[in-house]
Amino acid sequence: MDRQIRRAGLATVALFLVLFAQVSYVQVFAADRIADHPANAKRRLIAEYRVDRGDILAADGRTVLATSRRTRGELVYERRYPQGPRYAGITGFSSIVYGRTGLEASFDDYLSGDAPELFPTTLGDLVLGRPRRGATLVTTVEPAVQAAAERALGDQPGAVVAMDPRTGGVLALVSNPTYDPNDLSSQDPREVRRAWERLNADPAEPLRSRATDELFPPGSSFKLITAAAALEAGFGPESSWPNPRELDLPLTENTLQNFGGSHCLGGAPSITLAQAFQVSCNVTFGEIALRLGPERLARQAWAFGFGPAPGEGDVPFDIPFEEGVFPDPSAFERNDPLLAFAGIGQFDVAANPLQMALVASAIANGGVEMRPRLVSEIRDPQGRVLREIGPEAWGRPISATTAAALTRMMVSVVEAGTGTAARLPGVTVAGKTGTAQHGEGEPPHAWFVSFAPAEDPRVAVAVVVLNGGSLGSEATGGQVAAPIAREVIAAALRIPGTGA
Predict the structure, then answer these.
(1) Residue 240 · residue 232 · CB < 8 Å
(2) Which residues, at least 6 apart from 224, have a Cβ–Cβ distance to it below 8 Å?
(3) CA–CA separation, 325 vs 24, rounded Å?
(4) Which among 38, 42, 120, 374 is least surrounded, fewest beta carbons within 10 Å?
(5) Where does the pLDDT of residue 4 fall: very low under 50, low under 70, confident under 90, or very high at 90 and above?
(6) Closest CA to 158 of 146, 143, 173
């Protein structure tokens, strides 16, 4: 009898081991292969769309950027974007055909209810027979600032980014042209594919955000970095520099000229760093770049988050972000003329508005660059806060002394220099214009990089208008981009009667 019991016991243990091995194999080792099997694709899709995906809200906690609505089909929930084109560069899309982008992708675990913190809620939904619910994202985006940026940019191609320099919170992120993510979130695959083909056939590439995904020559707005490098190297705002009509470049017969071929300060023999910055004197900044040398200039650019190649600046952000680029010093070996052009934001220097908003924010924040962020809070389906995402310092590219000097120089640009179109009554605005050449015979890109109030900065704004916008070849950063920044600053500071 004992022998039979032992045999039965051993057989039972063996069966449990076989069952355990089978379950382990199916759930761990073969899980991906089984899940990817074509026969399971529809089942997996139906399960995914039974989840009541969480909302994405603006900073006010009321304005809905993305939500889920119930349908009558097999796919129980459909993703909807109430103001789709306005916030497309932030939310991205959730598509049954093409996956997810933007916040929909980077916070998918929370929105879909898969994050570990949501396990108690998910278990409760399962026990009670309710649809699984995802978490809600509360963003840092201010609807009034986003709307003002959209209106001010109008139908001109380009982008606007507004940030709180104290926290890194992105207040507005606008790219034009944009697209409607609702077209890609439809549950009709044929409709989704038609929209995808139409958007990808558009030469303006509306699916690529000019604010974060693309890079452009920053032109004279890059003089913020060149001036910072000079100040950090001990050249004060009142340091004196030669003021020729054009800069004779070494190793070549070419010269570097000022915008329009003008002679800064009416032809005075010398000019200070502060004066050259105020009137955006190319000749002086080319000379400064040559004096600093490639290593010092590159180190300063990299400290602000520019990298020697795309993606190497390593500035963390909640959605994909193409950091600015400043070449490795080896690119300038035995080629000083290229260094002079790099000092005024040309040659292989590139940036987008988010990168330049970070530069402005670091200056505004006393030299400390905060990590940019789009999400401030994650709430469970009952509205309880699961996670707060607070301000985080990313680095210190410049000293507080340098930041203060740059602020004074930027204020002079708006008060009496190339950026007077950004002036606001009762508010001290600090800014820098940029007019960037990017191809022979092509209209320039117009830039403006700014923050306000200069004494106690609460908003930093970077604007780029591509190909001169409405003014075409006649455009400058002061004429085209500065007025846009002015309206965005007014909206952020809640200044009435400005058209914001």
Answers:
(1) no
(2) 359, 360, 363, 406, 410, 432, 449
(3) 48
(4) 38
(5) low
(6) 173
pLDDT category of residue 224 using cuts at 50, 70 and 90: very high
Q: Pick from 428, 466, 452, 418: which is nearest to 153 by CA?
A: 466
Q: Whole-angstrom Cα distance, residue 89 to residue 74?
A: 29
Helix%, strand%, coil% for the chain, nearest 5: 45, 20, 35
Identify the H or E element spanning 68: strand 64-70
Strand ranges (E), 354-482 = 369-370, 375-379, 385-388, 393-395, 430-436, 445-452, 459-465
Domains and CATH numbers, the chain: 219-373+393-492 (3.40.710.10)
Question: For 188, left (φ over 0), alpha (ψ -120 to 50), or beta?
Answer: beta
Phi-psi region of 270 (alpha: psi -120 to 50; beta: other; left: phi over 0): beta
Q: Is 185 a known active-site residue?
A: no
460, 354 Cβ separation under 8 angstroms: no
Exposure class string for 437-475: b at 16+ Cβ within 10 A, else e? beeeeebbbbbbbbbbbbeebbbbbbbbbbbbbebeeeb
Cα separation values, 223 from 51, 150, 277, 374, Å: 50, 27, 8, 28
Which of 166, 90, 164 has the alpha carbon at shortest distance from 493? 164
- Band (pLDDT 50/70/90 cuts) for residue 124 is confident
Q: Tokens in use for 440?
A: 């022979």
3-state secondary structure of 487: helix
What pTM does this model have?
Answer: 0.89
Q: What's the rounded Cα separation, in Å, for the pair 266 and 284?
A: 14
Alpha helices in 92-135 (DSSP H): 102-106, 108-111, 119-128
* Contacts for 314 with CB less than 8 Å, ≥ 6 apart: 305, 307, 323
- Marked catalytic residue, from 220, 221, 280, 376: 220
State the amino acid at position 396 in one-letter form.
Answer: R
Beta strand residue intervals within 222-331, DSSP E: 240-242, 246-248, 255-257, 270-272
Element (H, E) at 158: strand 158-163
Asked if residues 357 and 341 have their Cβ atoms less than 8 Å apart, the reply is no
Averaged pLDDT, 129-138? 87
Cα 24 from chain centroid (whole Å)? 43
Phi, psi of 137 (to 5 degrees): -100, 130
- Give the list of residues 6+ apart from residue 304 with CB closer than 8 angstroms, or none: 225, 228, 324, 355, 358, 359, 362, 369, 397
* Gap between the Cα atoms of 146 and 178, Å rounded: 13
Pairing of strands 158-163, 136-139: unpaired
